[in-house]
Amino acid sequence: NNRTITNISISFNGGKDCLVLLILYLAVIYDTIISVNKRGYNSNNNNHLEAIDSVYINYEETFPELESFIKETETKYNLQSEKFDKIQLKEGFENYLKLKPNKNYILIGIRRSDFRAETSQNLEFIQRTDNNWPEFNKVSPLLNWNNTDIWMFLLSLDIKYCELYNNGFTSLGGTNSTVPNPVLEKSSFESWPP
């Protein structure tokens, strides 16, 4: 029943963490629909999954492979994405909430172990924004996951991810700020996945 998720959105930028978060979110939605149907509450055959609201905020020049993967994922998983280019996160969320003022919860794919997320050490799983940010609840289910957890999830379930990771990228930032690690290229391994 999609009425239960009308105030929720997911921040999706095509990265591995956001992809895991998306798959988990879809599993919860599916489980909820099945549970509702088993209890007989939804007899009007209105149990198809409608579009999932998402937001994509990008402040750097991105790789074409990433843009292509994001579009493919939006189509595959029925994401209704609002995209904001060349702006910082705070402004992007401000603009998004002007378009979607009913969104009280936004799922964020952040991990404490992510070296780029110094501020994540003080985050809680559900936390209201502060410091003059637009008001919403940040929901961060992956806080205690590490890089190995992320990759084990994606590889064990054979979930398609952005091909840039196979070229040695460990994160998918902008074209001017992100470089691959040649040691991590998929071609450098005898068998992949491990």
UniProtKB/TrEMBL annotation:
<keyword id="KW-0274">FAD</keyword>
<dbReference type="Pfam" id="PF01507">
    <property type="entry name" value="PAPS_reduct"/>
</dbReference>
<dbReference type="InterPro" id="IPR014729">
    <property type="entry name" value="Rossmann-like_a/b/a_fold"/>
</dbReference>
<keyword id="KW-0548">Nucleotidyltransferase</keyword>
<keyword id="KW-0808">Transferase</keyword>
<keyword id="KW-0288">FMN</keyword>
<keyword id="KW-0067">ATP-binding</keyword>
<protein>
    <recommendedName>
        <fullName>FAD synthase</fullName>
        <ecNumber>2.7.7.2</ecNumber>
    </recommendedName>
</protein>
<feature type="domain" description="Phosphoadenosine phosphosulphate reductase">
    <location>
        <begin position="8"/>
        <end position="180"/>
    </location>
</feature>
<dbReference type="GO" id="GO:0003919">
    <property type="term" value="F:FMN adenylyltransferase activity"/>
</dbReference>
<keyword id="KW-1133">Transmembrane helix</keyword>
<keyword id="KW-0547">Nucleotide-binding</keyword>
<keyword id="KW-0812">Transmembrane</keyword>
<comment type="pathway">
    <text>Cofactor biosynthesis; FAD biosynthesis; FAD from FMN: step 1/1.</text>
</comment>
<dbReference type="GO" id="GO:0005524">
    <property type="term" value="F:ATP binding"/>
</dbReference>
<keyword id="KW-0285">Flavoprotein</keyword>
<dbReference type="InterPro" id="IPR002500">
    <property type="entry name" value="PAPS_reduct_dom"/>
</dbReference>
<dbReference type="GO" id="GO:0006747">
    <property type="term" value="P:FAD biosynthetic process"/>
</dbReference>
<keyword id="KW-0472">Membrane</keyword>
<feature type="transmembrane region" description="Helical">
    <location>
        <begin position="19"/>
        <end position="36"/>
    </location>
</feature>
